[in-house]
Write a structure and sequence with these properties.
- By secondary structure, the protein is mainly alpha-helical.
- It has one domain.
- Helices cover about 75% and strands about 0% of the residues.
- The protein is built from 14 helices and no strands.
- About 5% of the residues have low confidence.
Length: about 300
């Protein structure tokens, strides 16, 4: 049981829950009956993705990370493959219990996961882009609780897309060290995300004018809690990325990646506070506390 839990990376799964909770806030908390199904869907999709990632990486892990469950012999490869595929299937089925649009988004996530695990992660550009797409779509999975919200607020998926694209690019140097140029790119990209979030937290709706959807504008008032969460996000992640930029060694890069993955919850909570208020934003932060606790017991990367 411990070995299978290690394959799932429980701390990361809780960050997936935060994505959907934030997306549900963007959808104005509509169709609340869909939320349990969407949470089950995202947990299973994320879990299936990381399990299959280890399955396809088992030969590399045998050299670089022999302590992982599959190369150590604690989980048989065939069992891991069945487990991961089953989780993806359950994730898609759970989404079908919400809305048709959620089912479509879940299928896109599952497809992006398989593309990443089997092929694109070996490409320096396509790997981060595919992983970023998984996270952007995961936010949209929560938005799909209200189908009309997908067309009105799809642009917000660019925030987790850009953020995770940057963190994934840096993560390629976790074992052998990375290049300063990549860490520099990640610094600029995450700084851009933090800036956009900060502007939104002041009450400016960046999407209203270009898309002419004043009727769907919910982030019209300043959100002090969102600004506080955005500040915390910038403080944690930009410092870690700056260290990775300066040193570019495996230790600094692993710290930056770990910090970046766990701090994604702050991005979600900031969005949630803008669109659903302070209390809901704090509820999303609760997943960060759970993730931090689980990170003491299970590997994040």
């Amino acid at each position: 049981m411990r070995a299978f839990l290690e394959l799932l990376r429980p701390p990361n799964v809780t960050t997936a829950l935060a994505d959907v909770l934030a997306g549900f806030a963007i959808a104005n908390l509509g169709n609340s009956w869909t939320l349990p199904w969407l949470l089950i869907a995202t947990a299973c999709l994320y879990g299936g993705g990381v399990v299959l990632n280890d399955y396809f990486d088992r030969a590399i892990d045998a050299v670089e990370r022999p302590e992982r469950p599959i190369p150590s012999g604690r989980v048989r490869p065939a069992a891991a493959a069945r487990f991961g595929a089953s989780l993806l299937g359950v994730g898609v089925l759970a989404a079908t219990r919400a809305t048709r649009e959620a089912a479509l988004v879940a299928c896109l996530i599952a497809g992006a996961i398989l593309v990443y695990d089997t092929w694109s992660k070996h490409h320096s550009l396509l790997g981060p882009v595919t992983m970023g797409a998984c996270r952007g779509l995961n936010l949209m999975l929560g938005v799909a609780a209200v189908p009309a919200a997908l067309s009105a607020r799809w642009e917000l998926g660019l925030l987790p897309f850009t953020y995770i694209c940057a963190i994934t690019a840096v993560s390629r140097g976790e074992v052998h060290g990375g290049r300063r140029q990549i860490a520099g790119f990640a610094l600029v990209a995450v700084a851009g995300v933090v800036t956009v979030l900060a502007v939104m937290g002041t009450g400016v709706d960046l999407w209203e004018a270009p898309f002419g959807r004043s009727e769907s504008s919910t982030g019209r008032y300043p959100s002090p809690v969102s600004l506080l969460l955005t500040t915390a996000l910038g403080w944690r992640v930009l410092r870690a990325l700056w260290r990775a930029y300066q040193e570019a060694d495996p230790v600094a890069i692993r710290l930056a990646v770990r910090t970046g993955v766990l701090s994604l919850v702050l991005l979600d909570a900031a969005l949630a506070a803008i669109y659903a208020g302070t209390l809901y934003g704090l509820l999303v932060i609760g997943t960060a506390l759970l993730a931090a606790g689980l990170a003491r017991l299970f590997a994040v990367t």
